[in-house]
Amino acid sequence: xxxxxxxxxxxxxxxxxxxxxxxxxxxxxxxxxxxxxxxxxxxxxxxxxxxxxxxxxxxxxxxxxxxxxxxxxxxxxxxxxxxxxxxxxxxxxxxxxxxxxxxxxxxxxxxxxxxxxxxxxxxxxxxxxxxxxxxxxxxxxxxxxxxxxxxxxxxxxxxxxxxxxxxxxxxxxxxxxxxxxxxxxxxxxxxxxxxxxxxxxxxxxxxxxxxxxxxxxxxxxxxxxxxxxxxxxxxxxxxxxxxxxxxxxxxxxxxxxxxxxxxxxxxxxxxxxxxxxxxxxxxxxxxxxxxxxxxxxxxxxxxxxxxxxxxxxxxxxxxxxxxxxxxxxxxxxxxxxxxxxxxxxxxxxx
Length: 350
Fold this sequence. Notes:
This protein is of the alpha/beta class and 350 residues long. Helices cover 31% and strands 25% of the residues. The chain contains 10 helices and 17 strands.
């Protein structure tokens, strides 16, 4: 009989790993069978919360990977170990969902893509912005031609990291040097890549005026050249004093979309509604429409379901290793430009 339920293990069960565990348990196609974390206290706590036996808890991912009953491994660890665990899991014959960023360095991404190609297993990168309802609706509006041809797109990753250094301060480790653009700004970069395509070149400025005790700049602004003569901009700020947001504006020749990942609506401006005064059953006032959307800005369950469907149907993964690596490539180019003061061409050779 064809398998319909996939056994999944989660590696890294601190804050974001809980979303993975909860998402798995909400799906009919998935079963949570094992968890792993190097912190025994957190591991025990999660086991109690999710009614898991001690035999299904591991402190070493290599021991977990010896289990033949595991179909998929999700990697929700701190960024520096994404590559190691992902490559080990792929070579152990497991499909993998790796959290964003795919890795902090482009060379690591290339190794991950290579391992996926050599093993034939499926690799998905958790670019969860593509599963946010407002962003999905915006992309559909653009694909349907509702705002004409794009000419300028902008997004931001604004998130105050003042109290978010991570366990052991890994986000501000001077050795690993996690760049905010790659670690968090990849959300905004990937969103614009999804909507406008791969930018060919970038130019960026950065500074550090808020988190002065961190080893990296806390604010970066990047300008990009996208296909079809579209210009783009991404702001990454991890020292800003405001609520977390990915405010995004998409400008087209026939309209504009303004949205974020925490509001219950997006705003669509139109210069014409096909000559009508109604649009989707709503009266048009000054050609401004507020379209309701659900707020689900970390829709991990849908990501996992997509991977399960791809495995069960043997179909391509939407946000595969090449997609994840492409986003890191743009982020790396932004960091390089900010450091050198030069325009940088993005390398998509994986």
